[in-house]
Amino acid sequence: MNLSIICINWNSTDCVKNLLDSLNENPPSCEYEFILVDNASKDFDKYNLEYDNLTIIKNNDNLKYAKGNNQGIEIAKGEYILFLNPDIKVRQKSIDILLEFLENNNDYFGACPKLILPNGDTDLSIRGFPYPKDLIYDILKLNRLGKCFDKYRLTKFDYTSSSDVDQPMTSSLLVRKSTLDQIGSFDEDFPIFFNDVDLLYRAYKDNYKVRYIPESVMDHLHGASTGRADRKVMQYNSYSSLLLFFKKHFNTKNSLIQYKAIEILIKLIIKLKGLHP
């Protein structure tokens, strides 16, 4: 068994160094490589990143998250790929627990850990797929009425128990390389947001599952790269990517009315919030 870890960096090299330090302190028990894809970070040359098993792909421009991950996937040698954001710190055995689960459960595409925020709270890292009806409930705040209206944001999700999930954050997500080869890599039409949701939804449609495992714990600083970008631009990109996700997966005869309702609602939100690219 071997592992490829892929991390995309944009102006968060300080976090990358902390991540690599945590990995040195708590390495997986198997052979692994760390592929760092740097998207023209301004702070990259300030830090000396000399670590064993480290491969660096240095881009001259910001090729964004999806393209960067695909660059890493193209050269990855591992049977498993662990996607890690720069703002993650691994804890003891956190990677091994995820690997052991996938080794013993061939019908699963991925596994993810519990993420802990700097204040000690559990990061709310699990959501359902944004089906049109469930997203409409969420936008209209009907999710407060009970579980049947709260299938997207999952505000009452039990983070203490292991369970199958739709879409965990890819801040930390272990996947099986052979399945990734089958379903395809990240869709680069989603440069920053919803590329992970699209990937997981494609796996789900091919009957592959993802497991949330709270016994595996990692620390999450949260927003190391996106938090340093213009907030309104990021919000605009998020809503635009959501519309693209619906157009790709739900702009069908059976879902046309719900799709059009979502399209109108999101465009209205973009206008009312004064968001821009």
Secondary structure layout plus pairing:
Layout: E1 2-9, H1 13-25, E2 31-39, E3 54-59, H2 64-75, E4 80-84, E5 88-90, H3 94-104, E6 108-116, E7 126-127, H4 132-139, E8 163-165, E9 167-168, E10 172-176, H5 177-183, H6 195-205, E11 209-220, H7 231-249, H8 256-272
Written description of the protein model:
With 277 residues, this protein is α/β, with parallel strands linked by helices. It folds into three domains: 2-124 and 159-227, Alpha-Beta Complex (Spore Coat Polysaccharide Biosynthesis Protein SpsA, Chain A), CATH 3.90.550.10; 128-155, no CATH class; 230-277. Helix content is 35%, strand content 23%. The protein has helices spanning 13-25, 64-75, 94-104, 132-139, 177-183, 195-205, 231-249, 256-272; strands at 2-9, 31-39, 54-59, 80-84, 88-90, 108-116, 126-127, 163-165, 167-168, 172-176, 209-220. The strands form two sheets. Strands 1, 2, 3, 4, 5, 6, 8, 10 and 11 form a nine-stranded mixed beta sheet that branches. Strands 7-9 form a two-stranded antiparallel ribbon. α4 (132-139) runs parallel beside α8 (256-272). The protein is globular. The relative contact order is 0.16. The mean pLDDT is 92.
Notable characteristics:
single chain, 277 residues, alpha/beta, Spore Coat Polysaccharide Biosynthesis Protein SpsA, Chain A, 3 domains, 9-stranded mixed sheet, two-stranded antiparallel ribbon, 35% helix
Outline the low-pLDDT stretches.
none
Q: How many domain units?
A: 3
Q: At the first level of CATH, what is the class of the largest domain? A: Alpha Beta
> Structural class, from helix and strand content?
alpha/beta
The name CATH uses for the topology of the largest domain is: Spore Coat Polysaccharide Biosynthesis Protein SpsA, Chain A
Please tell me what the overall shape is.
globular
Mean pLDDT: 92
Number of distinct helices: 8
Q: What is the straight-line distance between the termini?
A: 43 Å
Helix content: 25-40%
Number of strands: 11
Biggest sheet layout: 9 strands, mixed
Just name the CATH architecture of the largest domain: Alpha-Beta Complex
Question: Hey, roughly how much beta strand do the residues contain?
Answer: 15-25%
Pattern of helices and strands: EHEEHEEHEEHEEEHHEHH
